[in-house]
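Blinded run. Sample ID left blank on purpose so nobody reads anything into the name before looking at the predicted structure. Input follows.
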Amino acid sequence: TLNVESNMIGDEGIVAIANSPAMTNLRNLDFGYNSRRGESVGDKAAIAVAESPHLRQLVDLDFFSNNVSDD
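Blinded prediction complete.
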């Protein structure tokens, strides 16, 4: 489990987590409320997580209260 809720890591922080081989066995990931300098986490972060080969074991993902589109 990795909970980075309300840590203001922004898209760049989430992309870094998604690209990290250390996340291979991660099953729960919480990115809720992660705006940075007034900018909400958006599609860039969501795409990085969805396409990450290191996050294939996820069973619970929380992007609550961010700016991710329905696309």
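Unblinding after everyone has recorded impressions. The first strand starts at residue 2 and ends at 3.
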